[in-house]
Design goal:
globular, 5 strands, alpha+beta, 2 helices, 3-stranded antiparallel beta sheet, 71 residues
């Protein structure tokens, strides 16, 4: 896989935990596509080069990662 880590943000821990594992297996490109199709789920991806990638509803502000729509 091209990912080092995936953190999934959502309302149900059983869903986020399961998705995290599935997204690592899917890889960065497919993983981001999958997350961006899901309602109320966001994710932070760290690739094997330690670069941070975010799902569409997240943004980096200074040293923080925040929601674009202020969830």
């Amino acid at each position: 896989t091209d990912l080092y880590s995936v953190t999934v943000i959502g309302n149900k821990s059983i869903t986020t935990d399961t998705l995290s594992t599935a997204l690592i297996v899917s890889g960065l490109k497919d993983g981001i596509k999958k997350v961006n199709k899901l309602d109320d789920i966001d994710a932070i991806f760290i690739d094997k080069y330690q670069k941070v990638h975010l799902s569409n509803n997240l943004k980096i502000t200074g040293n923080n990662i925040t929601f674009k729509n202020n969830k």
